[in-house]
From TrEMBL:
SUPFAM superfamilies: Acyl-CoA N-acyltransferases (Nat)
Protein source organism: Aphidius gifuensis (Parasitoid wasp)
MF (Gene Ontology): protein N-terminal-methionine acetyltransferase activity
Keyword vocabulary terms for this entry: Acyltransferase, Cytoplasm, Nucleus, Transferase
InterPro entries recorded: Acyl_CoA_acyltransferase, GNAT_dom, NAA30-like
Family, as annotated: Belongs to the acetyltransferase family. MAK3 subfamily.
PANTHER family linked to this entry: N-ALPHA-ACETYLTRANSFERASE 30
Protein EC: 2.3.1.256
N-acetyltransferase domain span: 99-248
GO terms for cellular component: NatC complex; nucleus
Protein name as it appears in the record: N-terminal methionine N(alpha)-acetyltransferase NatC
Pfam families per record: Acetyltransf_1 (PF00583)
Length: 248
């Protein structure tokens, strides 16, 4: 496959031996969004049921979160397993497009990661920002490779929040424009979350622009909920949503 945009209907073959072993791990997650696929409409409206949870002003209604969670968790495991199986199946391919998922191993991968991520950023990061995350948490950085080309990357960290909560943080995620909507972004996030679970994470958070529909869809499909709205968070004046996935 060359670097031309993938045609609709093209699928990808995931060449990753760890894929099947990930599924049982992921079934331990509390991923509510798959239970109530009501979230495809207006992401900004208040009082919508998004992700299976009640929302106020675009974020999760915490007062109702626990009772919602209880109700949803009981139905969760089977649906979650089905969803992940479907996601894997949807990435298995008629055409010979092999996506390899690899962990970060060398500084030589840094230019590829930066090139990919910088294309989509509204605020550029310095090399030191990349190094801060990647050198400190190399096991939480994954690349998606197609024919030796880096077509996706995720950069994360995991540390203590308020001295008690082991909080994973997804700092950067990008997929090459020509390879989007093929499940690569979701697979990268799932790998990062699995690595965080292996390291006893309690929760995972991230921020994204409130207007970033692809990112919101991706994360909400994986069970993240809208936890906070951060007004004018970005230099361009756009609000952010903090999304959170509870792992315990
Ligand atoms: C966000 C991004 C990483 C998604 O990567 P991707 O590989 O296309 O994502 P996936 O193929 O795994 O898609 C995940 C879900 O999002 C949906 N989605 C992806 N792009 C979409 C779009 N443009 N509009 C609506 N939904 C979209 C997919 O349909 C899929 O949902 P489904 O499983 O219900 O079909 C990619 O669009 C990107 O790199 N964007 C620029 C950088 C960015 O915004 N990063 C996130 C910062 S937090």
């Amino acid at each position: 496959m060359d670097n031309n945009k993938l045609e609709s209907g093209d699928k990808i073959l995931i060449n990753d031996k760890s894929d099947t072993s990930l599924i049982p791990d992921m079934t331990t997650l509390v991923i509510n969004s798959r239970l109530c696929p009501d979230n495809e409409n207006d992401h900004l409206n208040d009082s919508k049921i998004g992700n299976g949870l009640h929302q106020v002003n675009g974020v999760c209604d915490l007062s109702r979160k626990l009772s919602d969670n209880k109700e949803l968790v009981s139905q969760n495991l089977e649906c979650m397993t089905n969803h992940l199986n479907n996601l894997e199946a949807s990435c298995t391919a008629p055409r010979n497009i092999h996506i390899n998922y690899v962990s970060y191993t060398s500084e030589l991968q840094m230019p590829d990661i930066m090139k990919l991520i910088q294309k989509d950023l509204s605020e550029p990061y310095s090399i030191y920002t990349y190094r801060y995350f990647i050198h400190n948490w190399p096991k939480l950085c994954f690349l998606a490779m197609h024919d030796n080309k880096c077509v996706g990357a995720i950069v994360c960290k995991l540390d203590l929040h308020r001295k008690i909560i082991k909080r994973g943080y997804i700092a950067m995620l990008a997929v090459d424009f020509n390879y989007r909507k093929l499940g690569i972004g979701s697979n990268l996030v799932r790998r990062a979350i699995t690595a965080m679970i292996d390291d006893d994470a309690d929760e995972v958070v991230l921020e994204t622009e409130i207007t970033n529909r692809p990112a919101l869809t991706l994360y909400e499909n994986l069970g993240f909920v809208r936890d906070k709205r951060l007004f004018r968070y970005y230099l361009n004046g756009v609000d952010a949503l903090r999304l959170k996935l509870w792992l315990r």
